[in-house]
Amino acid sequence: MTALNQTADFLVEIGTEELPPKALKKLSQAFADGIVAGLNEAELAHGEVQVYAAPRRLAVLIEGLQTQQADKVVERRGPAKKAGFDADGNPTKALEGFARGCGVTVAELIEVETDKGIWMAYNLQQQGQPTSALLGDIVNRSLAALPIPKRMRWGSSDVEFVRPVHWALMLLGEEVVPATILGHTTGNTTRGHRFHAPEAITIAQPADYAETLKAQGYVVADFAERAELIREQVMAAAQQAGGEAEIDEELLEEVTALNEWPMAIVGDFDQTFLAVPSEALISAMAGHQKYFHMFGKDGKLMAKFITISNIESSNPQSVKNGNERVIRPRLSDAKFFWDQDRKRPLDDFLPRLKTVVFQQQLGTLYDKVERLETLTVKIGKPLGVDAALCERAARLSKCDLMSEMVGEFPELQGVMGRYYAMEQKEAQDVADAIDAQYQPRFAGDELPQSALAQALAIADKIDTITGIYGIGQVPTGDKDPFALRRAALGLLRIMIENELDLDLRLLIQYGLELHEAVEASDALIEEIYDFIIGRLRAYYADQGISAEQFEAVRVCRPAHPLDFAKRIQAVEKFAQMDAAESLSAANKRISNLLKKVEGDLPETVNVALLTESAEQTLWNELDALRESVSNLIAGRDYIAAIESLATIRGSVDSFFDNVMVMAEDEAVRLNRLALLNQIYQLFLQVADVSRL
């Protein structure tokens, strides 16, 4: 095997103080991506990439890395030929200087012909470098590019990183790759668990890394493996305690990032705390202590928790006792907030909303509540909701934001409002709506179920979107401080998945009219409509709908999101038909022909001018279908409509095969175009299939 074809596994590990848990996965993946990008830039082939991430280390293992760059020819281009020689054909000083820079004579240069003329050039044979000579720079560049908002220094060094660095390991095969990484000379040793295995551990070769750390260092380096280990331990511990654990994936990820050698321990807390709403207790346990909770066979929260200890303790009872001591004051706080908040009716919190600014130009939260009262009534009317209930739900919707409990646990907004409303004997629909107004809170979350909750949730999202968008704070890139994209998608999901036949433009108009700081206009309504409907692109992509299918419906600009969804279903059905490709091409051809028409087409087809049998047949089939298709479209049975339209495929193909559309006789030409336009417009009432 030649040196060029030789490969070896490559391993790099950066040992640090405990890394930020919520950023660990992102940092580790970015580290690996940066290294891979550097290898690709250096034209170094490689195999599989394994990413490792633990609290005190970032590591990347790359299998089968090419150990030597290939030699290559690099073209160095000099001056243009006309600038390289004078009138007598002698080389100019510029050309001679270029040749000297290449280490050759002018005679050894070559001519390169381009679209901009002939240039003088030289093909330089560039010898490939050993991979080991390139890796230090590749790793350092990847580290420098990591998404770290604020880097820190330590000791007297000028080196900066997210946390202080204690060692750097870098191996290519069994050999150490010599380099300086974040102030440390690379070696072949790592460190294990801070307490179980603090001494140096030698890694003989990259492939041994994970198993050596596990066997000698009490470290599970693979993030996914560690997460699954924690999940299994939590589920088993809960089962042993007579319950069932509920695992929040975000909490699991954070706990995984906090532990190298996870050990699950079950703890207990006082039964009296169960009088507090379970959501508040769960927030206290998960948010403050990173504990997992469990439910009993009766479906109720148990007075137990599961903590993940980062140590294999010789005295687990001591660890259990310590965690129980820590959680008690947290739960006591939650109970205190619950007791204090219930001393006053929910309405009493309403005036305090005047002290909280929703947005400088859009007023306070109290102003938002007043807008929601009007909006919810308007939206609730076509949904059959009593206006008084709409007003009451909207009036109480934000009151819990001023409660002690939500002040401590912001994620409980709406949840505590529901509890406090139930405490003061509000209608159950009103209480449920206060909670459900924030749904869906995340991708895949449940949607508001009652019509009242749907009306309030839609009103809340419309108010935010129209207000923030209306004052010009349009989301750009990653910046979306008011989560307008999430609100827009949530709004659409509520209407589509709950089959609410609401006019989106009308909702936008309602919202804009209530914002004094916003000047409503048709143009602004259309802008906001485009922004909201644009969220459906990714929504449908997740369901296997192509960008072309989405665009075919979007250009029709349906006012009702539910109508949009029905058209998408029809287009998806159409795309599976045998006639789809032919009819799509025909519609595209029709569209192109119609674009060339100057002036207006005749509104009707003059049957007397249809002289060719193919156009007569097409007209007769279209005329026979027209009424039934129009009725299907009016009833939004778009699938049946598109299936009916697909039956004219043969006649359309025959028309284009046998009829000259752009006839010399203007009347005949316009008549044929009018016939084609009627076909195109019928399809367009479902979707623009020419885009498929």
Parts with pLDDT < 50 across at least 5 consecutive residues:
none
| Portion in strands | 5-15%
CATH architecture of the largest domain: Orthogonal Bundle
Helix tally equals 26
Output the CATH class name of the largest domain.
Mainly Alpha
Shape: flat
- Number of DSSP E strands: 18
CATH fold title of the largest domain: Hypothetical protein af1432
Note the main sheet.
5 strands, antiparallel
The mean pLDDT is 93
Helix content: 40-55%
The N- to C-terminal Cα distance equals: 51 Å
Query: Which structural category fits the helices and strands?
Result: alpha+beta
> How many discrete domains?
5
Rg over CA atoms, rounded to whole Å, is 35 Å
Which strand order does the major sheet show? 2-3-1-7-8
Indicate the topology.
Blueprint lengths: L6 E10 L7 H18 L7 E6 L2 E10 L5 E9 H4 L8 H10 L7 E5 L2 E10 L4 H14 L20 E8 L2 E2 L3 E2 L2 E2 L3 E3 L8 E3 L6 H9 L5 H18 L3 E3 L2 H10 L4 E6 L9 H12 L2 E4 L5 E9 L6 H26 L15 E3 L3 E2 H16 L6 H10 L7 H5 L6 H9 L4 H9 L14 H20 L13 H14 L6 H10 L8 H13 L1 H6 L5 H8 L6 H15 L4 H16 L17 H22 L3 H8 L3 H10 L7 H19 L8
Antiparallel strand pairs: 1-3, 1-7, 2-3, 4-6, 5-6, 7-8, 9-10, 11-12, 13-15, 14-16, 15-16, 17-18
Helix pairs in contact: 1-4, 6-7, 8-9, 10-11, 10-15, 11-14, 11-15, 13-14, 14-15, 15-16, 15-17, 16-21, 17-18, 20-21, 21-24, 22-26, 23-24, 23-25, 23-26
